[in-house]
Each structure stands twice: as structure tokens, then as C-alpha cells.
Amino acid sequence: MSDLSGDTGSVAPPHLIFIRHGETDWNAEGRMQGHRDIELNDKGRAQARRNGKALKAHVETAGLALEDFHFAASPMLRTLETMRIVCEELGRGPGDFTVDERLREITFGTWEGHTIPELRAHSPELVARRKADKWGFVPPEGESYKMLAGRIEAWLATVTQPTVVVSHGGVMRVVRGRLTGVAEAEIPSLDTPQDEFFVWNGSQLDWV
Hints:
208 residues, Rossmann fold, six-stranded mixed β-sheet, 6 strands, disordered N terminus
């Protein structure tokens, strides 16, 4: 697949602020969530509020106008709640954003709800295959990062105005990797913090 960073003028978004949803109990336990609809825990709500406050300060410091930004979120419970908290901190209405199915997390299929140690105990061969090729590995009834990249690239190609997005760790990895030209094999291991967000200004990515 192509590296979007090489053609930022026509493919990559002009200005993108990417927020990962706050922590859930499954995040804390190391359980694969994927398409399972798990709510934020109290720490996750505090992280979302922190990101909302930090975004408000960033916008003011950078001299940006929030009315120029489109707001979009994954349809999962954890992302919707995160977006509503962010909107509250920004003084926006709780429903003042669009929902995009393409922003759903990568699905881990039958592995969802399990930790890696649990999976290693009964499917050691598959876990070893995943470790050797996280980009191309497809969990049983699941999705690979390569497959995820296909739908995320399709979404990125439609982002033609400044956008604030709330989505997931897997999506964050792919978007960050594509914008900055990270090698595909390295994308699945990129950090995905929940207590800060990244800002892409059309040519450079920074964390806030």
C-alpha cells in the first residue's frame, strides 16, 4: 500500500487531530477489545476530560478556529463517550459530531475478550505467527492490520477539511504510520497513548 506522507497535498488531510478513546476495564486487563462494545472506566473518563481541556488550550494557543473543524468518531461506546466529554470541554453540543463506521477498531474475531497469555495457553502456534507478522496476521474470524489499513486509507482520502477524530488504538497506529511513512512491519507496535493526542498539521506530527 502507498505511503500517504509523500502526497500530503492531495491525499493526506490538511489538519488532523487524533484522539484515542479513554481507558476501559479491558484495556487495564490487557484484553483484546476489537468490536466488543466496552465502556470507559473512571480513569478513561478522566483521560477524555484531560484531552478535551488540552485540545481547548491547544486551539487557543495555535490560533485555530474550532468552527473550521469537522468532528468525527467511531460508533463504539468508548469512542462516543470520549467524544461527548471532549465536546463538553470545548463548549460544543454533546451530539455535535458525525459517526463513521470506517473508524471502528480492528476486529480480533474469536480472540476478543482474551489476553495474550490466555491465547498463548491454548493457541501457541497462532500467537507465535502473530508475533512474527503483526501486519499481515489475521486472527480467527478477525482482521489484519493490512486489512484495517485498506478501510482507513479509504477514509483518509475523504478527509479534505480540518478534522478532530476520536477512534481506537489500531486506527491510531495506521493513521500515524501512513502520515509519517512508518514501515508497515513497525506500524502495529506504535504507541497509542490515551492521555494525549496527536496533531498533524499537513506536514508534521506532534503530541499534545
